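task queued by scheduler; priority normal; single chain, no ligands, no partner chains; default sampling; output format set to structure tokens
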Amino acid sequence: MQELMLIAASGLAREVLAVIRGSDQYRVVGFLDDSSIIQGRLVGGVTVLGTIEDAALYNYTQFLVCVGSGTARQQIVQRLALQGITRERFATVLDPGVRVPPGFTVGHGSILLSNVVLTADVTVGTHVVAMPQVTLTHDNVVEDFATIAAGVTLGGGVHIGRAAYLGMASSVRQGVRVGDEATLGMGAVLLQDLPPGETWAGVPAAPIRLPVNDNQQEQPA
């Protein structure tokens, strides 16, 4: 059984632990987390063994980054790369009930939790997180470090950009593209392309406009 080290003692990590304990694929040996408060403590019955900078000490383990934010996962993976930890050292964890049909792609470091559905010709990149009850339909592409929260539904041919975040119970119309590092709010219904880096919410989804600072004047559209 392959040994696995979880990066970040988070809520997501405890969900991953629940998945792993229902299978015989990995044995979790510990957590690495930068919080000084939890060093040496048990989280979900597993010990926090050190910080992320200690990863290079574990030569024979696989790693899994359990952080909800895609941009934060990306930063941690970059830190690990500086320690010589290559993409092949990252585990892929799928709930036992998730069916990945032949020919589908799920990248290294990705996490698919319970009742995630993949229908036809779906591509999931590296270090993607799909929470419970996510539905990925035909020809969906989910790029690296994207996060898809619980209950999200994607229509056919949707493209989710790198490190994008889709909030709980949101949905995306077929053929629509969500840009890199964009955010779609909880319960939103996206009917058109969401540009990179923007945050949209509502039904139908529209850009969220931040309040104008007292020292600034609102710029004309």
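post-processing summary
- The CA atoms of residues 7 and 120 lie 31 Å apart.
- Residues 92-200 form a domain with the UDP N-Acetylglucosamine Acyltransferase; domain 1 fold (CATH 2.160.10.10).
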